[in-house]
Structures are given as structure tokens and as C-alpha cells.
Amino acid sequence: MLDYNQLAALTAIHRRGSFDLAAASLSVTPSAISQRLKALEEHMGTLLICRGQPCTATPPGLRLIRHFEEVMLLEATLASDLPQGPAPMTIRIAVNADSLATWVLPALAATHNMLFDLVIDDQDHSQDWLRRGEVSAAITSHPGPLQGCDTLPLGALRYRATASPDFMVRWMPEGISRSSLARAPALTFSDKDRLQRDWIAAQIGPGLVFPTHRIASSQGFVDAALLGLGWGMNPDPLITHHLTAGRLVEIAPDTPLDVPLYWQFARLTAAAIAPLTHAIRQSSEKFLL
């Protein structure tokens, strides 16, 4: 039999990155956390945490964490059928920043009796968190299939290559070209962000190297474009009113980039997160194509 206090300690160390923070999250002493992990590692006969800054779980540790979180979700579902009712369940999901900034938060707000632990990652990479068992669900650009998971298509988030009118006068007075895009500063969320590169490839061909600012903020992207810092791919829901008011313009009119999105979730916990799945689908119908 597995000791769930020990599994809770293992999970907290990995999630919080240190023994001290794990202890604080579970309201026990760091010594108790250390003892529980040591007992679990001795019971399993293998190292479960790589000690470092931060502390991270080994592959066997990740498998135990996934088991623990699945059991906690299943117990929360069971509790909903009992007289005392369920305690709030914590659900960890991976989501891209633009979805969070546009349509995911309304879905979370519409879901009751749940606490959310959000991992923010690019839609092209969020599925990796689900594959490793570090989240229960993910909003991803990959349709799957992923072993042990179900996938629901949500629609597409539309992006437009936008900049301020002053930026266009300075950097692209005659519109986009290979030479102007090679000079004009772009905006990139992170090294994982391929949206600008994909849009350029679709408009003028692949292989262009372009200068870029790195700004890991969806609203910061919009603000930077408004201030003329650079051009970038901004999601429609964040910029429609700026386009209408003329504060932003498309650097090449009517050239949107649509990114399909999917809701992937572990099949074992599908019933436990069903209310969230329902809210995700409803919100996506309002905001996505």
C-alpha cells in the first residue's frame, strides 16, 4: 500500500521546487517533508526527487505524482455523491498565454468548487506536460492521439500581424517585403513562439531571419505594438477594438493566421473534470472560430 501523506510530500516538493516551500504548502515542518520522502524512496527502492534548485521529480517520481493526483480527483468525484459534499479539488492544466488572456479565464470562472494550478506554455508544447503526466489536461495545437487521453476540438484562435500606424510609416512605408521584414523589429513571446515565423513563411516564403524583441506577456505584446516597439501576431479578441479605432493596423491586410486548438485530458479523470470540460467548450464557442 502507498502512503498518501508521503505521496503528497513528493508532489509538493516537485510542484513547489523545494522542501521548505513544500512544507509550507502542506502546513508541516521541512523535517517532516524530508522524512516522508525518505520513507517513500526506501519503500519504492529508487530515487524519486533530484535535489537541486529547483528540486524535480525523477521519471518514477513523476509516475507516482500522476497516480496521486488522479486518485485525488477520483476521490473528489466520489465525495460529490456523499452527504458532506466535495471539498474543492485542485486541477493542474497547461494553457498557452494568449488563450488564458482571451477566453480561458471565463471558463475557469464559470466552474465551481475547483482550484486551478496553471502551467503557461506555448500551444505547440503544452501537450508535452500532459504526456509527462504533469497536468490533468491541456489546451494544445496538437490533435493527438495521446495514449490514455481524449481530445476535443475547440476551434481556432485567429491572429493578425499588427503594428501601429507610426511603425508602418517608419519601417514599412511601402508595405511588407522580404527586405522590410528583415529590418523591422518584430515581437516574439519566447523562443518557442513560431507565430511570426509561420506568418512570414506563409506571406513571402521560409528562411527569413528577422530582428525581434522578446516579451513574454500577451497584453505586453499588444501594448508594445501600440507604442510602436515592433510588429507581432496578436489574437483578434485583444485587438479588434484597436483595429477599429485605427490605433493598430494589419501590416498586410486580410492575412490572418488561424491556430486550431484542442482540449486534451486524461481519460481516467474525465468524469472528475467534466464540469471544466463543459465550461471550456462553452467559452471556446464564444471566442474561437
Question: How would you describe what is shown here?
Answer:
This protein has helices at residues 4-16, 19-26, 30-44, 59-79, 97-109, 126-131, 165-171, 178-183, 195-204, 218-226, 236-245, 274-287; strands at residues 49-50, 56-57, 89-95, 114-120, 137-140, 149-163, 186-188, 212-214, 232-235, 249-250, 257-266. With 289 residues, it is α/β, with parallel strands linked by helices. Among the domains are: 1-63, Winged helix-like DNA-binding domain superfamily/Winged helix DNA-binding domain (Arc Repressor Mutant, subunit A); 157-258, D-Maltodextrin-Binding Protein, domain 2, CATH 3.40.190. Strands 3, 4, 5, 6, 9, 10 and 11 form a 7-stranded mixed β-sheet that branches. Helix 5 (97-109) crosses helix 12 (274-287). The longest helix is centred in the N-terminal third of the chain and has 21 residues, at 59-79. The chain is elongated. The N and C termini lie far apart (48 Å). The mean pLDDT is 91.
